[in-house]
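R.M. (postdoc): so does anyone remember the format we settled on? I'll just put the structure tokens first.
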């Protein structure tokens, strides 16, 4: 089964009343589109994701928050307790995206100077403590290099029927190792299909973060895309500077792909990334074009898709139509165009 999330709008730059409105609207759009839930980012310059998660639960009937949790911000016990408390109050799961943190500079501002790969070692312990607390019927004792707890009990206890789905995010070898050690789904930004070997197992069991701008008509989809993401030389310069100082494996890989991409008929579009407007690739085109492209990711084993922040309700409506087309193609119940 394909699980699809959208992404919560950012709070940075928004007035309080605007952000509350945007959260409520996103919750309604997500429910109406039949998606599983909403990814909620965490960083220095956004509202605490747990506050946003509770508001989303209040404003929706079905959606599941996918909350980004990182070690420097919250102890694993605090994460497990917030998950179990929200379960208790709302009777729904709260999924977790386990992340190592933002840019090295931002991590240093809060006293977190661990090297890239060591941050993933810590993340594995973080996920293990959270999982033990949510699943164990006995007090938890854990001895690691980064976390130690002794006969720690969780209250309220987690409902076994509502246990969260766990994810890690990244493309580096260290992230791949964390995925294997934790046995969770890894979210990554997809490369264009031609960058994967035929029959490659690289994406099997994983998840993608991607934007979709689909419409019934090919030309209309591209008209919307170019109107939303026009050329921006200043944005391109900012992107090159940010990439120069990043230690992110996915950023460097996608940057190389973006630099090499030429204009062509493919739905895969890197322009929003190159102009610093978004940080993921987009698929643009008709339902059939986008669906056929997505279907090839699905047949490679993808089971989760996290869509980028929708600009308007129509974005999720049209994306859902393309996704349904992709699922039918991947299942062999519909003929490829």
């Amino acid at each position: 089964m394909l699980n699809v999330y959208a992404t919560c709008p950012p709070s940075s730059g928004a007035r309080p009343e605007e952000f509350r409105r945007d959260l409520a609207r996103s919750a309604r759009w997500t429910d109406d589109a039949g998606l599983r839930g909403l990814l909620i980012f965490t960083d220095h310059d956004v509202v605490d994701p747990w506050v946003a998660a509770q508001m989303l639960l209040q404003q929706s009937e079905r959606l599941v928050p996918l909350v980004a949790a990182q070690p420097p911000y919250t102890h694993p016990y605090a994460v497990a307790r917030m998950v179990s408390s929200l379960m208790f109050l709302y009777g729904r799961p709260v999924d977790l995206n386990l992340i190592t943190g933002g840019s090295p500079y931002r991590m240093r501002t809060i006293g977190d100077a661990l090297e890239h790969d060591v941050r993933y070692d810590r993340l594995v312990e973080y996920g293990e403590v959270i999982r033990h607390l949510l699943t164990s019927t006995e007090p938890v004792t854990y001895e690691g290099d980064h976390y130690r707890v002794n006969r720690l009990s969780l209250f309220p206890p987690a409902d076994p029927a509502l246990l969260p789905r766990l994810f890690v995010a990244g493309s580096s070898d260290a992230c791949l190792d964390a995925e294997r050690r934790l046995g969770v789904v890894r979210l990554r930004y997809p490369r264009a299909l031609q960058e994967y070997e035929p029959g490659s197992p690289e994406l099997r069991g994983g998840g993608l973060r991607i934007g979709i701008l689909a419409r019934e008509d090919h030309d209309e989809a591209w008209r919307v895309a170019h109107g939303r993401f026009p050329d921006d030389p200043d944005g391109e310069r900012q992107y090159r500077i940010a990439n120069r100082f990043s230690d992110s494996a996915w950023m460097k890989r996608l940057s190389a792909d973006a630099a090499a991409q030429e204009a062509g008929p493919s739905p895969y579009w890197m322009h929003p990334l190159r102009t610093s407007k978004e940080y993921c690739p987009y698929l643009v085109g008709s339902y059939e074009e986008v669906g056929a492209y997505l279907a090839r990711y699905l047949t490679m084993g993808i089971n989760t898709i996290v869509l980028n922040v929708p600009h308007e309700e129509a974005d999720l409506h049209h994306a859902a139509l393309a996704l349904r087309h992709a699922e039918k193609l991947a299942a062999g119940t519909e003929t490829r165009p």
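R.M.: ...and that's the designed sequence above, right after the tokens. Also worth knowing: The chain is about 45% helix and 15% strand. The CA atoms of residues 223 and 285 lie 10 Å apart.
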